[in-house]
Write a structure and sequence with these properties.
Blueprint (H helix, E strand, L loop, with lengths): L2 H4 L5 H10 L1 E5 L4 E3 L7 E7 L1 E7 L5 E8 L5 H8 L7 E4 L3 E7 H10 L1 H27 L2 H16 L3 E2 L3 H7 L4 H13 L3 E4 L2 E4 L2
Helix pairs in contact: 4-5, 7-8
């Protein structure tokens, strides 16, 4: 996928620089892109596919933070890269995903030289912050059934699909719950006509 067709807000000179200095890489579905504790030497501009950003505890439990799609980048990796810090998150390709890896030394100079890059970084921070506030609100102030409904709607919006390729266990992992609880709540939603359940598929009706 051509960079200029996705990141149309960047100046031609910046696009040329990114193509020259950046590294194209493709990750297979399910492949881990970034691990907790890993030093970040570059940030990834998403060209195609979808990336899941999540936290993982010592027992391997997961908590979904947000998804990244074409035209987006991970704000956390940007911060860690610029501060030469280690990652506090996990990133995994949900489907085959193509990225452009931008080295940290290039990012530093681009912040001052290219206003479109500066604005993109600030907007990325703002978007992820707003999304995290929404997630925190749902965790702190809503019951699991409301969190599940929010999760499914957000997943459908992110993928542009009504038929979601999700197992009950995967949903439970993302919501830090149990498969039994999720299965019970999904069955309740199906009875209310809000979803239709298929094998390893959840169809969002409304």
């Amino acid at each position: 996928m051509e960079l200029k067709k996705i990141y149309t807000q960047f100046e031609p000179e910046l696009l040329e620089l990114l193509e020259e200095k950046g590294m194209h890489k493709t990750f297979a579905a399910g492949e881990v892109i970034l691990r907790t504790g890993q030093y970040i030497k570059s940030t990834a501009l998403i060209l195609s596919g979808r990336v899941k950003i999540y936290r993982e505890n010592e027992e391997g439990g997961e908590f979904l933070m947000y998804f990244l799609q074409a035209g987006q980048a991970c704000a956390v990796s940007m911060i860690c890269a610029l501060q030469a810090d280690t990652s506090e998150i996990m990133a995994k390709a949900e489907e085959e995903t193509e990225v452009l890896l931008v080295p940290v030394e290039l990012m530093e100079s681009m912040m001052t030289k290219y206003r479109s890059w500066y604005q993109y970084v600030i907007q990325t921070y703002r978007s992820r912050f707003d999304e995290m506030l929404t997630v925190v609100d749902h965790i702190a102030f809503q019951n699991m059934d409301e969190r599940l409904e929010f999760y499914l709607k957000r997943y459908a919006e992110q993928t542009g699909k009504k038929m979601l390729e999700l197992s009950h266990q995967q949903i439970a992992d993302d919501l830090n719950s149990s498969r039994e609880v999720i299965s019970r709540l999904l069955k309740k939603m199906e009875q209310q006509g809000r979803v239709k359940l298929h094998r390893n598929l959840v169809e969002v009706v409304k």
